[in-house]
């Protein structure tokens, strides 16, 4: 989770060469004006005896250009692209190199968690009601905070505080 949060914090720095706009971090998705421009997924393995991380895989999908025939109807109102918010042509080689360079810079910050303050400041889910989706079950929760391990601190409809560190959240901007 921390790799995803830290990388999500730095992804906007990777795309500055592609144009200027205001970025907001959305747990594991970078958004712009309420529309998704990128998704960041993580998968890992933890040793059950030592609780140490065996490995982690980070997957990043960036909408560089809008599809020729627009986004599919089911995501048309929630997806956007880097090019749609840039005055410049998007150089994919520069974008990918920048992403890798930023990742190398932030990798060392994972243990210290020095990125969490900025990550929380950029979050657009703190103070919002979101749909938490896990194992096919969707429930509405209120996001209070993000803890030191990158989990969302939420309050459920029973008033109970929970920490969500896996699954998916969905939020709609007005």
List keywords for this structure.
174 residues, alpha+beta, 3-stranded antiparallel sheet, globular, disordered N terminus
Model description:
By secondary structure, this protein is α+β, with helices and mostly antiparallel strands. The chain has helices spanning 2-14, 92-107, 116-122, and strands at 24-26, 29-32, 35-36, 38-46, 53-62, 129-134, 137-146, 152-155, 161-164, 168-170. The strands form three sheets. It has a five-stranded antiparallel sheet, with no helix packed on it. A hairpin with a 5-residue loop joins β7 (137-146) and β8. α1 packs across α2. The chain is globular, with a radius of gyration of 17 Å. The model is unreliable at 1-7 and 14-28 (pLDDT under 50).
Quick summary:
The protein has 174 residues and is of the alpha+beta class. The protein has helices at residues 2-14, 92-107, 116-122; strands spanning 24-26, 29-32, 35-36, 38-46, 53-62, 129-134, 137-146, 152-155, 161-164, 168-170. It is built from 3 helices and 10 strands; from the N terminus they run αβββββααβββββ.
């Amino acid at each position: 989770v921390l790799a995803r949060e830290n990388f999500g914090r730095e992804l906007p720095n990777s795309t500055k060469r592609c144009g200027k706009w205001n970025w907001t971090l959305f747990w594991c998705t970078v958004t712009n004006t309420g529309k998704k421009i990128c998704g960041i997924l993580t998968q890992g393995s933890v040793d059950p005896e030592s609780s140490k991380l065996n490995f982690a895989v980070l997957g990043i999908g960036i909408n560089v250009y809008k599809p020729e025939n627009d986004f599919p109807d089911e995501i048309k109102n929630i997806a956007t692209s880097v090019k749609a918010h840039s005055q410049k042509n998007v150089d994919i080689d520069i974008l990918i190199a920048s992403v890798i360079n930023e990742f190398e810079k932030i990798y060392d910050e994972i243990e210290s968690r020095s990125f969490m303050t900025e990550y929380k400041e950029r979050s657009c889910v703190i103070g919002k009601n979101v749909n938490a989706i896990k194992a096919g079950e969707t429930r509405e929760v209120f996001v209070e905070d993000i803890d030191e391990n990158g989990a969302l601190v939420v309050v459920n409809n029973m008033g109970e505080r929970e920490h969500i560190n896996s699954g998916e959240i969905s939020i709609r901007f007005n």
